[in-house]
Amino acid sequence: MLSLGPVRWAFHDLPVWLLLWLLMLAAPSYACDPRPLAAGQIDPACQATRLDGTWQGLAGLLIPPRQIDRYAAQAVPLEVPGYWTKAQLNSNDEHPGGYVTLWTELRLSGELATGEDLALWPGRHASAARIYVADGRGKLIKVFDNLSPLVAESAIPVSKLPAPGLAGRLFGSASAQLPKLYPGARIIIHIYAEDFRTSGIAQAPELGK
Prior knowledge:
Oligomer: single chain
Shape: globular
Structural class: mainly beta
């Protein structure tokens, strides 16, 4: 005689399966590519809008955003969020502080795919910082800056440290409205790290509507 045990079990658990199915339908869906991206490329739709991941970084210089490509071969991968040692930054400078330029390329997808009506929250840094966004079509906008009181903007790379005793802290900030972003948009961060032992980004920048 055929046992009805499995059938009874299936019907008994039907409400559970139905609930799970309904929850899956209600969950937000993002057309994000789960494959690993190249170092220095981030898809924020895969990160719940956080720009976590591997950025490109270069210690010892504040590089004007339009000159970033000239230094790509010298960059080292840096995890964001993270705190970096002098060894990770490939820095031989014995001064306890220094400059770091970080950059990443964005690959927008999901609800961010149009590149419109986006805002950037700068994150939480252990240093003074300046943040630019390049939209991928030549437009560049500065969206945060508490570094300029220490180090003025420059059309050439800056390598000279500010006067001793100057310091800046960024623990949080309101978000800034961005220009329309296109494929290849970049986020560029200049950091003045007072001490490489404690320098870094405690919370990654966030991009969202």
